[in-house]
Every structure is written in C-alpha cells, then in structure tokens.
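Please, structure for the following, as tokens.
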Amino acid sequence: MLYKEFYNSIGLQEYQPLTKNQRVKFNRFVFKNIFKPAIDNCKVIIELTELELAFIENFIKDKVVVKQQESNGFDNKHRLKRELTGACIEFALLKYFKKQTEFDDSIVKSSKKKNYPDLLPLGILCDVKGSIINNVPLVFKDKRSYTYQDGKNKGKQYKCCNLIGITNHKTVWILGIATPEILKEYVDDNLIMFSENTSKTGFYGVNQLIQLPKKWNDFKKICKLNNFELT
C-alpha cells in the first residue's frame, strides 16, 4: 500500500509517533502521492469568480473578528486562512448544485450555538472538510459525534458523512463524499504537521470516496443512507 511506503522508508511501523519534521514530510508525501493524482483526475472542479471570492473573503474577515473575541490568542494567526479554505469549498459545493444563494453567511458569537454539520441548515446531515492545496485535509476524530438539537430525534447522537475538497482559494476540487466508516479507517494523527489537535486527525482515504452525484437530492440520499445513529 502506497500510504505505508513513508513509514517503511524511515524504518517505523505504521502510526508510530513522528517528529515535527517527519510529520511535515509525511503530509507532503501523502498529498503528492495520493491527493495529487486524485486532483488531476477530479471530475468536479469549480472556479470561483472575483465577485464570489470578494463576498466570501468579506464574510470570513467579519467572522474572524468575532471568533478572535471568543477565543483570544487561540491560533488566531492561521484562523483567517483556515476559515477561508472551508468557506470556499462549501460555497463551491453549493455552486455546483446551483444553490450558492443558500450559502450560510450568518455569524454567531458562541461556537457552541453552531456546533452542527455545515450542511444541516439545508437539510443534509453532512459536514464539509478540506484543505488548501498541498496540505492533507483534517477531519474530526472518530470519537466526535453530533447531537440532534430538535425534532423527534432530539438528544440522539449520530455520525455523518464529510464532503472532502481541496482549494487554492480560487479553484475548488471536490473529491467526493467520505462515509463515517471511511473517516474512521483512513486517518492518521501523524498527518497533523505543526501541532497536536485533540479533536481532529489527518485524512488520507481519497481513493475510497463516493463520487459526488449531479443532483442535490441524490447527494442528500447518499448522506442519509450512510449516516448512522449511535446506540
């Protein structure tokens, strides 16, 4: 398996802890050898216009100001770039389905009030995850779950699909849909390059993704069939 070649090259077993320098090299190796071929063969490529980018950037700048007030000093240096990456991918996904006018540009002061999958307001239990080009995407660890906030399932926990994308903040490559099972199996903490993250891990299972369908309702069905409630 290509993924294991890096560990073999430095004489370590898979998932053994790596040094900071090794993590950076590992991240680059996985992106070059696993993600780059997927990007080259990607069937869903969305170009964002200057007006769309300006709208997204202005929204993110306002959001970052609020987030800095909420958690002053917590990774604020990289927050804008990280938030912009996620917003570009989410907007591009909606644009693909001609639903970009439904992009959620609301800002809440407390993150606890918006602790749900990105696409839930549109009726789809799916989160959007991705990265800037040349970096491996981070996803929530398997122990992380969501809780229904209302309705007949209020209080029940569930795990949901993730839409995986890569962007350079102009072009967005939507690589596909990761089911909870894929998110559990194809991850490695060593893919986090610069710091420990207690809630996220690195994702490398791009070759296991479900291709994004052409219709919104089909996308919704795929997510519904693959999500599951926790007993």
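The first helix runs from residue 5 to 9. The two ends are 34 Å apart (CA to CA).
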